[in-house]
Structures are given as structure tokens and as C-alpha cells.
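Translate structure to sequence.
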């Protein structure tokens, strides 16, 4: 079964709990053994966005599935060793973990993410990658708002609908920012906003807030601050 590593935490000196986006089961938490030994390669194998082929044991430990075997399905050329790309991977893996459901297959989204990670690894230009990735995440989850109609100038982030007048709460985006969110998945070129570093941060912030309101919850996205520092 193909699986994408999203996050891991220490369970014991030799074991970690690894949350992975799997091809057939969506998000799952696995107990992985073999960490801690001097010659162990587990840490390198189970880093954010690693692409693996895994087999599960039949038995479980409580709510945790257990990895029986794993192998790399793709060998990175650059991603883990490139500070900017590694920061992007950490941020987007956190957003994925917060946005997808446990034990619910997202096959088309999985295929997109699997291919996008390889594209990030090999790309020479990737400043728009986080925005395009989140745009595709929103679209694959069926959350993407429609483009505005004539006379609609404000996107209500709570309802995902366009309004003629600004809604009476702060969770809104003006037309320029809202359209940047709507078209992020399909935009291969800089828009009026994403042409500048400041504008890219604004679009990224509104995408994150939109996902928080709909699926990701209100907890801070810790890796977002790191990403902004690296891209500053």
C-alpha cells in the first residue's frame, strides 16, 4: 500500500507513532519500530512527505496500526536537503494532517499529493508551490468557492459564498484576495497578488484560514511561521 508520511512523534526509545496519508484508507496512525539503533535508517525514511510502500500487521495496538514492512517508493533528489523545500514539506504535511479524515479514502487527492511531492523535489522554481498545493487541497475536498458573479465583491470565508456587501464579521476576503483563493489551484502564473512576496503571504494566510474554518480546526499551524521566516 502506498503511503505518504505526514508527522511522527516519539512513542518509546525505539518506537514512533507516525501519521500517514494512505492510498486506500486516508489518514492513519501507525506504530513503527526500529528507531534508536546506531545504524537505523528509520528517521530518514519517516520524514515529512516521504513516499513509501508499506504493509500492515493484522494485529493492532489499541487505536494504532502497526507497520510490518516499509520501503521507499521514491528516492528524493533534493527535498530533505534543501532548507526551503524541507520547510514547505513540513508546512504542507501539517496542513494535510489537519484537513483529511481518518480511515476515509481520498484517492484522487492522494494521487495529486503523491505526484506533487515529486514535482517539488525536482523543481527549480517553487515560490508558488504552497499556494497551488493548498488550492488543490481545497478543490479536492470539495470546498472551493465558485468565482464571483457581477456585483459580488466580498467572499464570506465561513459560508464559502460571495456577497455584494461586506459580511458583518471578520472572516472575509475582498474580491482580489478571494479570487486569488478561488483560482489558486489552476493558476500556473503569478496573479496581481502572488507576483509579490507580500501578496503571496496574504493568499497563503487566507487559504490557511479558510481550511481552518472548514476542516483543519482553530489550532495554530506551527509550521506556517517557520515557512514565512524561511521565505522572508
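Result:
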Amino acid at each position: 500500500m502506498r503511503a505518504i508520511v505526514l508527522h511522527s512523534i516519539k512513542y518509546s526509545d525505539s518506537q514512533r507513532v507516525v501519521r500517514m496519508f494512505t492510498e486506500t484508507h486516508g489518514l492513519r496512525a501507525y506504530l513503527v519500530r526500529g528507531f534508536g539503533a546506531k545504524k537505523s535508517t528509520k528517521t530518514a525514511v519517516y520524514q515529512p512527505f516521504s513516499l513509501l510502500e508499506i504493509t500492515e500487521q493484522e494485529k493492532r495496538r489499541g487505536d494504532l496500526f502497526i507497520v510490518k514492512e516499509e520501503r521507499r517508493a521514491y528516492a528524493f533528489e533534493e527535498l530533505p536537503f534543501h532548507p526551503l523545500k524541507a520547510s514547505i514539506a513540513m508546512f504542507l504535511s501539517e496542513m494535510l494532517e489537519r484537513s483529511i479524515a481518518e480511515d476515509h479514502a481520498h484517492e484522487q487527492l492522494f494521487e495529486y499529493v503523491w505526484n506533487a511531492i515529486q514535482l517539488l523535489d525536482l523543481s527549480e522554481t517553487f515560490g508558488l508551490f504552497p499556494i497551488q498545493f493548498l488550492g488543490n487541497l481545497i478543490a479536492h475536498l470539495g470546498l472551493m468557492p465558485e468565482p464571483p458573479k457581477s456585483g459580488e465583491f466580498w467572499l464570506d470565508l465561513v459560508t464559502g459564498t460571495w456577497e455584494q456587501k461586506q459580511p458583518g464579521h471578520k472572516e472575509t476576503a475582498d474580491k482580489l484576495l478571494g479570487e486569488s483563493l478561488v483560482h489558486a489551484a489552476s493558476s500556473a502564473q503569478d496573479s496581481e497578488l502572488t507576483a509579490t512576496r507580500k501578496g503571496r503571504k496574504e493568499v497563503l494566510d487566507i487559504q490557511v484560514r479558510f481550511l481552518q474554518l472548514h476542516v483543519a480546526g482553530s489550532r495554530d499551524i506551527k509550521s506556517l511561521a517557520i515557512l514565512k521566516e524561511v521565505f522572508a
